[in-house]
């Protein structure tokens, strides 16, 4: 577990906390390791969470399948990001989505009750983790608002322009790589894959973009 401390130090949850302080907190927060192979579920819809999960390696997708198997990707979890903070309230209810490992992945689980309940010594670094958790929830809410802005557009082209424009501004570059393949991007934007691929080609023909697999350049 200690070999992952440098990665934990780079996460938003432990921002401002030293490696020695993180090491001292691992037992206090009941940290435990989980390893998942590509295609394996970390959580399933309907489960009740009592842990916050930090991704140490690999990649996770928060997704939901309807009765007929149509998939929507709600969000992507990259290394250093966490999941489960939306369910820390006692009455949060069961998990609404699945969490799937799209690569071989390693996660660390932290007991949420031990995070939000500051120990009797009220150590500075524990209080800082609680503050960081609040800020991380705020950032996650803003990301969901940005996604809502993409999928609320009326046409596939408008959704693509909204998403690609946001990625270009976030990277401060007209050249960037997106973290999705074609099917995953279609699932993320809630559009048909074939229609989206056709629209991308039309946008290229119209001189709006250039692309090669998941690498894009806005013109």
How confident overall, as mean pLDDT? 89
Taken as a percent bin, the fraction of beta residues is: 15-25%
The strand line-up of the biggest sheet is 1-8-3-6
Structural shape: elongated
**Low-confidence runs:** none
How many helical elements? 7
Counting DSSP E segments of at least 2 residues, the number of strands comes to: 11
Give me the Rg, rounded. 19 Å
Helix and strand arrangement:
Layout: H1 5-9, H2 19-28, E1 32-36, E2 41-43, E3 51-57, E4 60-65, E5 71-77, E6 82-83, E7 98-101, E8 105-111, H3 112-116, H4 124-151, H5 156-171, E9 175-177, H6 182-189, H7 193-205, E10 209-212, E11 215-218
Antiparallel strand pairs: 1-8, 2-7, 3-6, 3-8, 4-5, 4-7, 9-11, 10-11
Helix pairs in contact: 4-5
Structure, explained:
With 219 residues, the protein is α+β, with helices and mostly antiparallel strands. It folds into two domains: 2-143, Jelly Rolls; 153-218, Arc Repressor Mutant, subunit A. It has helices at 5-9, 19-28, 112-116, 124-151, 156-171, 182-189, 193-205; strands at residues 32-36, 41-43, 51-57, 60-65, 71-77, 82-83, 98-101, 105-111, 175-177, 209-212, 215-218. The strands form three sheets. Strands 1-8-3-6 form a four-stranded antiparallel beta sheet. Strands 2-7-4-5 form a four-stranded antiparallel beta sheet. Strands 9-11-10 form a three-stranded antiparallel beta sheet. Helix 4 packs antiparallel against helix 5. The mean pLDDT is 89.
């Amino acid at each position: 577990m200690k070999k992952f401390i440098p990665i934990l130090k780079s996460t938003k949850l432990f921002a401002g906390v030293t490696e020695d302080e993180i090491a001292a907190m691992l037992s206090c927060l009941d940290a435990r390791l989980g390893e998942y192979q590509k295609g394996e579920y970390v959580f399933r819809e309907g489960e009740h969470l009592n842990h916050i999960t930090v991704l140490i390696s690999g990649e996770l997708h928060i997704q939901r399948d309807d009765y007929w198997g149509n998939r929507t990707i709600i969000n992507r979890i990259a290394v250093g990001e966490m999941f489960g903070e939306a369910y820390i309230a006692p009455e949060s209810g069961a998990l609404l989505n699945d969490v799937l490992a799209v690569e071989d992945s390693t996660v660390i689980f932290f007991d949420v009750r031990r995070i939000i309940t500051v120990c009797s010594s009220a150590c500075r670094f524990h209080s800082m983790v609680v503050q960081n958790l609040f800020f991380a929830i705020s950032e996650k809410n803003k990301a969901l608002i940005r996604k809502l802005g993409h999928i609320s557009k009326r046409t596939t082209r408008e959704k693509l322009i909204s998403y690609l424009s946001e990625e270009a501004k976030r990277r401060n570059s007209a050249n960037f790589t997106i973290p999705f393949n074609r099917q995953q991007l279609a699932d993320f934007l809630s559009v048909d894959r074939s229609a989206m691929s056709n629209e991308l080609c039309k946008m290229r023909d119209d001189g709006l973009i250039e692309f090669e697999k998941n690498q894009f350049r806005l013109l």
